Amino acid sequence: MSLTELIAALLSAIGVWLTARRTMACWPLSLLAALLYGWVFFKAHLYADACLQAVFCGCLLYGWWRWMKDGAQGDETLHIRPLSERGLFFGLLIGALGGGLWAFFLARFTDDPTPVADALLSSYSLVAQIWAARRHTISWACWIVIDTAYVAMFVSRDLYPTAALYAIFVLLAVHGLRKWQKASQA
Q1: Contacts of 29 (CB under 8 A, 6+ apart)
Q2: Minimal CA–CA distance to 24: which of 59, 80, 85, 76?
Q3: Cys-Cys with 115: which of 22, 88, 106, 156 at CB 3.0–4.6 Å?
């Protein structure tokens, strides 16, 4: 456990909570957390997750831009958008293909102790992040599954503050799912 990991965990939790509230401040806080976690994961030899944080930075900038473009002025001003069946299918397919390619690379060229889990979780995290940036409620359901699996992986790597954070993320994702479902029905 390091101070960097603790700060990254705190910023990440606040960022997810603000995302559930559809508050623009979620983007800069989450961006800082992703940068810090990139370093934490690199030091833990979780290379896919370290790379994922760099990609998340791009996704976070995209989400920030997208929400600003769509007119967010404060809390809960952005509307939720439905995801088509086609979008769901292609998102899940891209996650599987990306995860498979990433797993092959990690297994062949790195000392990642869990290349398949690391790659698939990272790949589907990108799918969920893009869906969140586009304000699809299903992103929260994805995060529930992804974050539950991450808890087990982080415990196995002795990243206990991060495992605790991801357990909290599961609860925050349940909260976000309920909040966004309610908003989409309104």
Answers
A1: 11, 14, 15, 18
A2: 76
A3: 106
Give the number of C-alpha atoms closer than 13 A to the C-alpha of residue 35, restricted to the C-beta side.
Answer: 6
What is the token pair recorded at 22? Answer: 């559809």
Which residue, 24, 26, 3, is CA-closest to 15? Answer: 26
For residues 121-125, give the mean pLDDT. 93
| pLDDT at site 71 | 66
Is residue 146 within 8 A of residue 125, CB to CB? The reply is yes
Contact 137, 131 (CB under 8 A): no
DSSP reduced 3-state for 7: helix
Helical packing angle, 115-133 and 138-156, nearest 10°? 150
The full length of the chain comes to 186
* Band of pLDDT at residue 72, cut at 50, 70 and 90: low
pTM, full prediction? 0.82
Q: Comparing C-alpha atoms, which of 124, 127, 175 is closest to residue 150?
A: 124
